[in-house]
Amino acid sequence: MGSSTLRVNRQIRVPRVRVIDQDGKQVGVLSNVEALRLAEDAGLDLVEISPHAEPPVCKIIDYGKYRYQLAKKEKESKKAQHQVKVKEVKVKPQTDEHDLMTKLKHAREFVLKGNKVRFTCFFRGRELAHPEFGEKVLLRMIENLSDIATPESPVQRLGRSLSVVVAPGVKKKS
């Protein structure tokens, strides 16, 4: 619930409310006027916590502090979410050993960060006559990442290229 939809003090128009005091103890169902008086006596605000309850639940708390805590919780929950992205690593059937190791190192970093990696092997000209060379390169990449990632599907041919997507996580051996 956003802080803009919370009703505070005199914005609460319902005749009777269930009141919870600043210590978290339930006071009971009181009239709106009595609940406001209790809050003012404590030097705090009457905040409507659950407007859809019957009767609505209101709490006697410091409204500024409550809004701050809500914003903090919202920020924490956003921080915990992680968007999985698909990173692409491109190779060719004739890619040299050192270049493959460098690309593999980058792919490993992507997987460790929780992203999926798509390996794509492009063929030019006559290379297309021997797709097994490209497949061998892709299978080698998958094998090198097998300790931290698993392929989502077998190697697929798409026009002048072969590709495979690997996802973080290792399948259990049964």
> CATH fold name of the largest domain, please?
Translation Initiation Factor IF3
Quote the average pLDDT. Answer: 86
CATH class category name of the largest domain: Alpha Beta
Give me the CATH architecture of the largest domain, please: 2-Layer Sandwich
Radius of gyration computed on alpha carbons: 30 Å
CATH homologous group name of the largest domain: Translation initiation factor 3 (IF-3), C-terminal domain
Order of helices and strands: EEHEEHEHEHEEE
Q: Report the sheet-strand fraction.
A: 25-35%
Shape: rod-shaped
Domain tally: 2
Number of helices: 4
CA distance, first residue to last residue:
46 Å
Structural commentary:
There is one protein chain. By secondary structure, the chain is of the alpha+beta class. A hairpin with a 6-residue loop joins strand 3 (45-50) and strand 4. The model has no long low-confidence stretch (mean pLDDT 86). The chain folds into 2 domains: 3-77, Ubiquitin-like (UB roll) (Roll); 86-168, Translation Initiation Factor IF3 (2-Layer Sandwich), CATH 3.30.110. Helices cover 34% and strands 28% of the residues.
